[in-house]
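User: My collaborator sent over this chain with a note saying "see what the structure looks like." That's all I know about it. Can you take a look?
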Amino acid sequence: MSEKQDKRGGAREGAGKPPHEPTKQSRELVQLHTIVGTQQSVVSKIIGITEKTLRKHYRDELDLSKAKANATIGGALFNKAKGGDTTAIIFWLKTQAGFREIHGVDHRSSDGSMTPSRIEIVAASDDNG
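Assistant: Without extra context I'll predict from the sequence alone. Here is the result:
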């Protein structure tokens, strides 16, 4: 049996580092770095733990932070679109409603003018088809 192990196989008191205990501050730090895309290997070094320990103790922060950030930014974009921001409206329709631009289509009506005789809205299907 190793000198640093007790009879149950665990570390004996006073041997090695104490087990990691997450704090509110460390959770916020992991969440912040995860939101901005810092790699787990770097986050673990910042906290001073191994990547395995990071994943063990901060699973929710690693899994949910990006989704929370996307919801916040998506909400801000949605509110701008609701407020009439044309760029936000176009972006939302293209990314969320499947709208797309059709290039190379002659938009002239039968009399040769650019006044449309018919407007067609084409939305992409959910199966990317």
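A starting point for your reply to your collaborator: Helices lie at 24-36, 40-47, 51-57, 59-82, 86-96.
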